[in-house]
Amino acid sequence: MSENGVVPRAKVLTIDTMNPTVKNVEYAVRGPIVARAVELERELSEGMKKPFAEVIKANIGDAHAMGQQPITFFRQVLALCSYPELLNDSTFPDDAKSRARRILQSCGGNSMGSYSASQGIDSVRQDVARYIERRDGGVPCDPNNVYLTTGASDGIMTMLKLLVCGEGMTRTGVMISIPQYPLYSAALAELGAVQINYYLNEEKCWSLDISELQRALDEARNHCNPRALCIINPGNPTGQVQSRECIEDVIRFAAKEGLFLMADEVYQDNVYAEGCQFHSFKKVLFEMGPEYSDTVELASFHSTSKCYMGECGFRGGYMEIINMDDDVKAQLTKLVSVRLCPPVPGQALMDLVVNPPQPGEPSYDNFIKERSATLSALAEKAKLTEQILNTVEGISCNPVQGAMYSFPRIIIPEKAVKEATDKGQQPDMFYCMKMLEETGICLVPGSGFGQKDGTYHFRMTILPPRDKLQILLNKVQEFHQKFTQHYS
Amino acid sequence: MSQPALNGVSGPGKVLTLDSMNPNVKRVDYAVRGPLVQRAVQIEKELEQGVKKPFTEVIKANIGDAHAMGQKPITFFRQVLALCSYPDLLEDDKFPEDAKKRARRILGACGGQSIGAYSASQGIECIRQDVARYIERRDGGIASNPDTIYLSTGASDAIVTMLKLLVSGAGRDRTGVMIPIPQYPLYSAALADLGAVQVNYYLDEDRCWSLDVKELRRSLHAAREHCSPRVLCIINPGNPTGQVQNRQCIEDVIRFAKEEHLFLMADEVYQDNVYAEGCEFHSFKKVLFEMGPEYSSTVEMASFHSTSKCYMGECGFRGGYMEVINMDPEVKAQLIKLVSVRLCPPVPGQALLDLVVNPPQPDEPSYTSFMKERTAVLAALAEKARLTQEIFNAVPGITCNPVQGAMYTFPCITLPQKAIAKAKEEGQIADAFYCMRLLEEEGICLVPGSGFGQREGTFHFRMTILPPTEKLKIVLQKIREFHLRFTQEFS
Fold first, then answer.
1. Domains (ranges, CATH) in chain A?
2. How close B78 comes to chain A (CA, Å)?
């Protein structure tokens, strides 16, 4: 109350007057547990005593933050693009200079500071198309179907936005995997679309079952208009790499049921397990013949944030659109023009990812060395993680076939479940919070990604350097044993 | 049998069609990169393929992209960015110490010392602190709290985010957002996308595009009949109009926002682009606080800035920030949550913004060169603003308000009745028809005034003042010739 007894006026923008769909948005990867982790870091830096010396942020797929080194060649080209004076500098290899020149020439005024075309720099889209063709054994790719984006997230959100329409029973429903990467649930909440969950099969290494897709779809048809099917391969948080047959089945299903397919393939280079291989949806679609390749509407997504580059901060990405209606494509092109263009440094980086040093070029050997080292380190850490976690009673971990995470199942004692519930917390959030406070390790509770009722999980990245990861896994083990003991 | 066939649709229709897509997206238009620009790109391709045209190049004077028009980046900024991209260069004595120092500071604030790491979703903390200090210096010491700063992917990102937060209600209760006419069409596009109600208030062309509170009031009252107006957007310096609002006007707007309970959005991306004698940039934040606590502790406001304009012109980096004043703490938590979904703004853009707010100081090695470059860019723009206004005002049928600031001219063009009729015949708005002709005949790409909004029965175009002076003179000359020809043809 103010001095003259007048009640102060309510604000214009309050929790009650704000956009209601935004209130439904959640994003666990940077949710409350991470906020607490940041707080703890602050407390540590202020000299407060804790049972640990550092907070380990194993919550987010950020490789560089965990010590992974950038690819030298990429950063050389980016430096040359940023400050072209360096083109006169003999310490830079010729192949880096030639790529920098090519990129700069496609920029307005030969500067990365110009806006690019909204769909992305022409020559970069051409390079992306050629990369896709090489990757997919020659299946043609039209650069006009390629849209560069601000990370894959941007492309995914744009596509979901285009797809959402209708009301009530005709409201667009979007099928997403459970567990899922919570960008999807967040985007659907924000757009007011209907989230349709299909469960991955934990007992069969998180594989995808068509009968489960059918169940989810049929049930959803009672209350919405399902129009899109999202799949993440390799999977996040689950790490499974779907078999070729599974991908064919999904395509067949989408064709039969009239669904727009969204294939999130940002981890396409992150495949570790013996016998596993990345099969792009585009490739499989085209190998299934024109009955499918002429009709199924598909958008596939890639990014500079993962794989062996780990360049999250650059926000580079692209999507390839197959069989999109021409009028809708014009609408898409119009929509992306409002935000002008994706960040040009990210576009330049994407160009290097799809157009890396070739055999015979000066930087080739070093590039391959760095790339191989990063990917094999990840493969080793994937194995180590699965191994160690599976030795812990009460933790069971599916093989980390690909991507960057483990998503182990944890048994939480009844007493702990009760205490959590009494507190109004999800039991696995309760568990992860305790782990954070006691060990400084920040993970994301499985409830943030979705899981079968009555099961609990956490997602942990496999990104810390091997030795640190080993320590981390041992601490997780110790904590789990203590926790189980305490609540027995 | 496929699902569509079961539904009785003959033949398999696509899942995603014009009829089944998001209806709001269909209502979105963005003239700055609209059909005229698409035709310009097509013509460029034709020229490349050797098709003969009445001109040898297409001049894209449609978009505020300084580097594309030949403006040079600031050397110091690009040195630091190179150092951040490839830290090996920190050993290279070609780079000045002040550049290295800033690069080290930025890298030190990044995860794993790499600009490839995600940053905090609100933006790198030390950069937000630097932004806060910049704001304090700019505003004569008025405090800025780094926690109220949100780095963004260009100013557009933050503007869309704020509008998104503000939109609610249905029917008569649907959020209305007041925007100037003429406006920068990000606003109308965002409002269409969000399904919010666009509430137009007209700037006064006869008084140099000034803002009249009477007009704000008229517009607001009319709007209250059919929606719930909750936001007032203002662009200062103005786009496309270039006016720099005086301090009195800004106070009046703030007072109006308070009286009428409106959330203020102040788009100030052209804050360094002020040319005209007697004009000065007054930040909304500064004026708000100088009006005392009755206003400064109550009026809810967001102000926006960017690395794309001013003297930097670094559009491609998508750097920007917003400062949010008097936001409800619960809403702030929602805002933080919302921006976290997209992880973070591009880190190179954040780094660039840090340099903009923390440029070389007088005692630093790069200072002299930096000041020289900055001054040269701003002086060239001021000269071109003046030149543009002068030349256009000498053309019968074109009247051009002073380009007080920003990067554009928005002259009023008189179009013969016959031309307007011809345009109508072809299903076009007259100024779009005019601009298309200009493009086809002279290779000059402008944006028709209808893309920004204008009073009924008036026509305009927006042209940037960015081409190098000599080229600009030629462009202005050609437009003059075209205008006379066009007027003649349709007389």
1. 20-67+372-486 (3.90.1150.10), 99-354 (3.40.640.10)
2. 5
**Residue from A338, A339, A350, A468 whose CB has the most chain B CBs within 10 Å, to mutate:** A338
Interface test with A, best of B22, B62, B147 (most A CBs within 10 A): B22
Where would I find the H helices in A391-413?
A: none
Same domain as B430, residue B377: yes
Question: Is residue B476 within 8 Å of residue B388, measured between CB atoms?
Answer: yes
Tell me the nearest-neighbour CA distance from A38 into chain B, angstroms: 10
How many Å lie between the alpha carbon of A486 and the closest alpha carbon of chain B?
Answer: 34
DSSP A243: -
Contact, A431 vs A479, CB < 8 A? Answer: no
A343: nearest CB among B17, B261, B317: B317
Distance between CA atoms of B419 and A211, rounded to whole angstroms?
A: 64
**Which chain B residues contact residue A363 at CB under 8 A?**
none
Res A5 pLDDT > 90? no
Average pLDDT, chain A: 96
User: In chain A, what's the furthest Cα-to-Cα distance?
Assistant: 82
CA distance B108 to chain A (A): 12
pLDDT, residue B2, reads 42
Q: Which residues of B touch A314 (CB under 8 A)?
A: 115-116, 346-348
Q: Do B221 and B263 reside in the same domain of the chain? A: yes
Regarding whether B395 and B345 lie in a shared domain, the answer is no
Name the domain boundary from B357, B382, B417: B357
Q: Which domain holds residue B272?
A: 102-357
Nearest chain A residue to B108 by CA distance is: A65
pLDDT at position B7 is 39
What's the one-letter identity of residue B132? A
Q: Is the peptide bond before B240 cis (omega within 30 degrees of 0)?
A: yes
DSSP code, position A446: G
* Closest residue in B to A221 (Cα–Cα): B3
Q: Residue A183: list chain B partners with CB under 8 A.
A: 341
Residue A2 in this model has a pLDDT that exceeds 60: no
Determine the Cα–Cα distance for residues B61 and B64; give it in Å rounded to an integer.
8
Question: Per residue in B108-144, pLDDT tens?
Answer: 999 999 999 999 999 999 999 999 999 999 999 999 9
Verify that B165 and B222 share a domain, yes or no: yes
Establish if B294 belongs to a structural domain. yes
Is the ipTM beyond the 0.90 threshold? yes
**Assigned token pair, B444:** 């000059």
**Domain total in chain B:** 2
> Looking at the partner chain, which of A70, A80, A112 has a beta carbon nearest the beta carbon of B114?
A70
Say whether pLDDT at B3 is over 60. Answer: no
Q: For residue B224, name the pLDDT band (cuts at 50, 70, 90).
A: very high
Task: State the pLDDT at residue B272.
Answer: 96
Given a cut of 70, whether residue B8 has pLDDT beyond it is: no
Predicted pLDDT at A6 = 61
Task: Let me know whether B302 and B378 are in one domain.
Answer: no
Express each pLDDT in A141-183 by its tens digit: 999 999 999 999 999 999 999 999 999 999 999 999 999 999 9
CB-CB: which of A31, A256, A313 is closest to B2? A256
Mean local confidence (pLDDT), B291-313: 97
A9 DSSP 8-state letter? P
Task: Please identify which residue in the block is written with the tokens 């008084």.
Answer: B207
Contacts A154 to B, Cβ<8 Å: 342
Size of interface A-B (CB pairs under 8 A): 295
User: In this prediction, what percent of chain B has a pLDDT beyond 70?
Assistant: 98
In a domain, B313, yes or no: yes
Angstroms from B338 CA to nearest CA on chain A? 7
The reply to whether residue A227 touches residue B15, judged by beta carbons under 8 angstroms, is yes
Check whether residue B235 and residue B171 sit in a common domain.
yes
Would B458 be classed as within a structural domain? yes
Is B89–A335 a contact, with Cβ atoms under 8 angstroms apart?
A: no
From the CA of A418, how many Å to the nearest CA of chain B? 28
Residue B447: phi, psi to the nearest 5?
-120, 125
Specify the pTM: 0.96
Sign of the CA dihedral with A350 first, then A68, A410, and A402 last: positive
Say what the pLDDT of residue B1 is.
Answer: 41
